[in-house]
Every structure is written in structure tokens, then in C-alpha cells.
Design a protein that fits this description.
375 residues; alpha+beta; Alpha-Beta Plaits; five-stranded antiparallel β-sheet; four-stranded antiparallel β-sheet; 8 helices; 11 strands; 16% strand; transport; transmembrane helix
Length: 375
């Protein structure tokens, strides 16, 4: 009527009696209709002491797995198809089956991801080693041809004019090498530290790698530098090793001669090819698993969300020990009472009887505590 244009629907506060065993399905039906607002009949009970806490925890565990799954699907740039109609909450008997499916999927994806990460790390190490061998070969050849003062072997040390040996050689100190890669941004500080600690008893040569490489630890793409450090004696060698550790250098064995270097390079080339093949197969398998999972992802997300909402509503109800049923109190438009009864009947799976008892005849504008009620 004209007088009701600016007024809400007439409301009533009703009490629902839900027989044990069918309460889940009844709340599911009510949720799909969206007719009522539930009152909390356990206001003094904390959320951790309510009746359906374990079921909500199970839903949250499923949400965690689904979050991981959706991130992996998104990372693989796979689209998640949505259904035309929103799926219903799964019946309780199917919940464990969905949980097992998700746990199995998480274990499989985690294992494949670990294997893929290990393969990628190995591939990166072999790639770094290859770059190091190629660049340090140029250092050695440049030094041997004495192309410039920067490649002279310890120019600050006195050389015996008769024997052509340095003082360190006469003392029996052995020439050693440390080679590897370091991030470009750390080179200057690294060079200063070597000079201060080793007092000039080392020679550092370095050159930037043309290719941008991912960091072994962080995965960030950055510029790397190959270095070769020559040093006299084990004590200096230990200091060099510690400095390299401090600056998170990736060290690789330095070949004795060109022949050994060529053998290692050939071996690395073969291993890199093999690793690439295995990595491609692993990525194909991972994509197949994610593609299959993406077909059910939308359904699982909606089902778990609805299921969790149902248990939250059931936690608002009180339990009648005598009649072994749940009691709920809801605000409902008077005009929808018939639909409310129909939803409860629809939700009954074992011919349980549901009772609706109005607590007040009609409350057009106000609820019991004086607050305005609107649908």
C-alpha cells in the first residue's frame, strides 16, 4: 500500500527447532534463499568453545590449501572457469572426500615444486660455472702474456734477480686460486676488504657476465661478476675463503690447466642439456596437474565458503539436550514465513520434523531491544 512505501517489511522473531542430523542441510537451504537473520543465542561463549569449532578449523585448513592452489594456478597463467550457477554447500558426507582430494593435491604440487626448484638451482649452478670457466680462461691467458701491469704476479714483492723467484716462493709458499661469482653491487666493497685483510698478497681480476642470472638464494635477477683471486700460502687462502663467505660468493673449482678446463666445459654442456630436458618434462607435468585442478577450483572455493558459513550459523544456535535438537532464533519478514517453512522442509533429508514458533506476532519497525529492523 501507499503507506508502506518508506517502511520496511513487517518482521517477526521466530524460533526454529532443527532436529539433530538435518540441521546442516536446513541452514544450507536457508542460506541459499537469504530470507532470515540469525540471532546469537550464545553471546557469553567464546568462539573457541562453541559446538562446531573443529568443523570450522577443517574449513580453514581447506581454505589454506585452496589459497596455495590458486596461487600456483595463477603463477602458471591458467584461467579458472566459473560455473553458470553457484554450487551448493557439499553434504557432510562429502567433506572428508574433498579434504582428502585437496591434501593429496597439495602434497603432489609441493613435491613437484621442490623437484623443480632443485633442478633450477642445479641448472643455475652449472650455468654460473660455465660462465666462470670461460671468463677466467681469459684472465689466465692475459696474465701469462703480461699484457699490462694489472696482471703482473705480485709486483709489490721483491724478485731475486738471479733465480727469478719471489721471496714468497723461496719460503716455500704455494700459489693458489679462488674463483667464483659475486653480485655486481658487492664488488667494490669486496675488493676493498681483500686489500685490507690480505695486505696486497692477493691479485683480484674480475669481469661482468653478459647474461643476467637469478640469485641462487633469493631468485632475484641481477648482474653478476666472475672473479679470480690469486694468493700465496694457506694462511692467506683461508682469509680469502672467509671473505668470500661473508660476501655470499658462489665459489667453483678452478681447473689446473686448459685441457682440464675444456673437459669440464664439455661435461657441463652435456649436463645442462640433460637438466633442461628433465626440467621441461617436470614443468609439463606440473601444468597438467594444475590444469586438472583448475577445473574444480571454483566449485571448491564456493563450497568451502558456504560450508564455513553454515557452521558459523550453527554456532549461533543453542542445543536442547532434552529433545536433542538445535534451537535457532531468526528475524524473518512475515510475508516470507511460508518460504521459510518450505526451505526447512526441503533441507530435511530423513523426514525430520521442523517446528517454527513465532516469538512475537509482528514487529513492523522495531526489534525487542528497540533497534530498527529492515530486510
Amino acid at each position: 500500500s501507499g503507506s508502506m512505501v518508506f517502511r520496511s517489511e513487517e518482521m517477526c522473531l521466530a524460533q526454529l527447532f532443527l532436529q539433530s542430523g538435518s540441521e546442516y542441510d536446513c541452514i544450507s537451504e536457508l542460506g541459499e534463499l537469504g530470507l532470515v537473520e540469525f540471532r546469537d543465542l550464545n553471546p557469553s561463549v567464546s568462539s573457541f568453545q562453541r559446538r562446531f569449532v573443529s568443523e570450522i578449523k577443517r574449513c580453514e585448513e581447506m581454505e589454506r590449501i585452496l589459497g596455495f592452489l590458486l596461487r600456483e594456478i595463477q603463477k602458471a597463467k591458467i584461467a579458472i572457469p566459473e560455473e553458470d550457477e553457484s554450487p551448493l554447500a557439499p553434504p557432510p558426507r562429502q567433506v572428508l572426500e574433498i579434504m582428502e582430494q585437496l591434501q593429496r593435491l597439495e602434497m603432489e604440487l609441493s613435491e613437484v615444486a621442490r623437484n623443480k626448484e632443485k633442478l633450477q638451482r642445479n641448472l643455475l649452478e652449472l650455468t654460473e660455472y660455465t660462465h666462470m670457466l670461460k671468463i677466467t680462461r681469459a684472465f689466465i691467458h692475459s696474465r701469462s702474456r703480461a699484457l699490462g701491469p694489472q696482471y703482473e704476479e705480485f709486483p709489490t714483492m721483491e724478485t731475486d734477480s738471479v733465480t727469478g723467484c719471489t721471496g714468497m716462493q723461496r719460503l716455500g709458499a704455494k700459489l693458489g686460486f679462488v674463483s667464483g661469482l659475486i653480485q655486481r653491487v658487492k664488488v667494490e666493497a669486496f675488493e676493498r676488504m681483500l686489500w685490507r685483510v690480505c695486505k696486497g698478497y692477493t691479485i683480484l681480476s674480475y669481469a661482468e657476465v653478459d647474461e643476467n642470472l637469478a640469485d641462487l638464494d633469493t631468485g632475484e635477477i641481477s648482474k653478476s661478476v666472475v672473479f679470480l683471486i690469486s694468493f700465496w700460502g694457506d694462511q692467506i687462502g683461508q682469509k680469502v675463503q672467509k671473505i668470500c663467505d661473508c660476501y655470499h660468493c658462489h665459489l667453483y673449482p678452478h681447473p689446473e690447466n686448459d685441457e682440464e678446463r675444456a673437459d669440464v666445459l664439455d661435461s657441463l654442456k652435456t649436463r645442462i642439456q640433460d637438466l633442461n630436458n628433465v626440467l621441461h618434462r617436470t614443468e609439463d607435468y606440473l601444468r597438467q596437474v594444475l590444469q586438472k585442478a583448475s577445473e574444480s577450483a571454483y566449485t571448491w572455493v564456493v563450497q568451502v565458503k558456504k560450508m564455513k558459513a553454515i557452521y558459523h550459523i550453527l554456532n549461533l544456535c543453542s542445543f536442547d539436550v532434552t529433545n536433542k535438537c538445535l534451537i535457532a532464533e531468526v528475524w524473518c519478514p512475515v510475508s516470507d514465513l511460508a518460504n521459510l517453512r518450505g526451505a526447512l522442509e526441503e533441507g530435511s533429508v530423513r523426514t525430520h520434523v521442523h517446528f517454527i514458533r513465532p516469538l512475537n506476532k509482528t514487529l513492523p519497525l522495531h526489534c525487542q531491544n528497540g533497534q530498527r529492523r529492515k530486510t
